[in-house]
Amino acid sequence: MKNRIVQLLNSEGLTSSKFADTIGVQRSSISHILSGRNNPSTDFIQKVMKAFPKVNGEWLLLGIGSMYKTQNANSLFETEPNEKEIHLETPVIQPPKINRENQLHSENVKEPILEMNSFVPGKQIEKVVVFYTDKTFKEYNPS
């Protein structure tokens, strides 16, 4: 992995000091990794991958593939859809025509509830509570 980090530094045109500053680690840790004294930690690798998102993580960790991610790699969120793909046909729904006389008539007619039926057989409604947006409520008792 040390050799791949050196390749990355050369490819990006960075010194070890600038590389350390870019990924947010101490300069001595880069020196220790490049000299072979220490192996890179998981935190170090994550910081490299975060600072250089175009670097292929598989290459950095295992040496497999190319140094940089390929442009034609398919990803669910990297590609932007074409306008042709987005075009959806939305049917125009016409509102129903309302006869003004029927509307006025139905607003004025209030039918009393003659029988309180429950949706659950064998159970009776005891109370109905209506909560309003102004934090008030009203209770209705069927009896």
TrEMBL record:
Signal sequence bounds: none
Limits of the HTH cro/C1-type domain: 5-60
Pfam family, one: HTH_3
Gene3D superfamilies: lambda repressor-like DNA-binding domains (1.10.260.40)
Listed GO MF terms: DNA binding
InterPro entries (UniProt xref): Cro/C1-type_HTH (IPR001387), Lambda_DNA-bd_dom_sf (IPR010982)
Name of the featured protein: XRE family transcriptional regulator
Species the sequence originates in: Ancylomarina longa
